[in-house]
Design a protein that fits this description.
This protein is mainly alpha-helical. It has one domain. The protein is built from 8 helices and 2 strands. Strands 1-2 form a two-stranded antiparallel ribbon. The N and C termini lie far apart (48 Å).
Length: 196
Amino acid sequence: MNVVLRNEVERKAIHLGASLLPISLFVLGPEAGTIVVATALIVAIAVDVARLRIPAVKVFFEKQFGGALRPHEAHELTGSSYMCLAALVCIVLFTVPIAVAALLFLTVGDTAAALVGRRWGRHPLTPGKTYEGTLACLVCCSIIGVVVPGVPVTAGLFGAVVATVVELFGIGTLDDNFGIPVLSGLSMWIVASLVG
């Protein structure tokens, strides 16, 4: 396994591990879930601030997780902070099922896009993205949109498409760890409201 793929696997293993957060919302419910997510956000930002301001913490963090960091994260918040922020926004704004689906689009769909694209991607679609990776994202997100209890199928499939489009093209400077769940969650909420 080459170094780039190994680093991507390490990063996406963290993403998949973060799937426990949205799944736990079904067990905890919205009130306790909000407390857990808010606590995770505070911890993630505290770690990022310490990493950016305290040299010893930075050295330790880069030794442990340096390969999993994107270049811009060396001087900014990591994707973990944006993911926790997105989780808090989703759990506050949407129903638990929509929040769970939106966050799983990120943790599972984005992971599938990256790993399949890096390993088997042969047909470029946009810079750094391939048809194979994008299809993997769409398939995983569509499955999530259909199987998460409480999400209308139409809304779940629409959200899956939105998540895939955001993963593929991005939204300007908006971090995709924030953009994917929030925008797909918003789209599912709108569609669910329309279809009743």
